[in-house]
Specification:
This protein has about 110 residues and is mainly β. Helices cover about 0% and strands about 55% of the residues. It has strands spanning about 1-5, 10, 15-25, 30-35, 45-50, 55, 65-70, 75-80, 90-95, 100-105, 110-114.
């Protein structure tokens, strides 16, 4: 199983970025994103189930949107109205249907300047 994430970068506060992550080598149920900011623990940002149900961290509700292309096992995270506190390394994950193990991407850095 491999996950390939892309889309991070540097953006000014109030700007937008879109992260993408494609999983290969299996069939996946829940997919989503975690992040880890400087000096902070890793936290769940958003997740989407195989049936399309979504959940978000309170801190990103109304600003971030997670979506999924099931045919391509690709998950997207549209991030709008970014804030400096959104600065973090964002990690995608995908849960294998076969063994319920969560597999992780390599992380992509998002930096929001004030």
């Amino acid at each position: 199983v491999q996950l390939q994430a892309s889309g991070g970068g540097l953006v000014q506060a109030g700007g937008s970025l879109r992260l993408s992550c494609t999983a290969s080598g299996g069939i996946f149920s829940t997919m989503g994103w975690y992040r880890q900011g400087p000096g902070k623990p890793r936290e769940l940002v958003a997740g989407v189930s195989g049936g399309g149900s979504t959940n978000y961290a309170d801190s990103v509700k109304g600003r971030f949107t997670i979506s999924r292309d099931g045919a391509k096992s690709t998950v997207y995270l549209q991030m709008n109205n970014l804030k400096p506190e959104d600065t973090a390394v964002y990690y995608c994950f995908a849960r294998s249907v076969r063994n319920s193990i969560d597999y992780w991407g390599q992380g992509t850095l998002v930096t929001v300047s004030s």
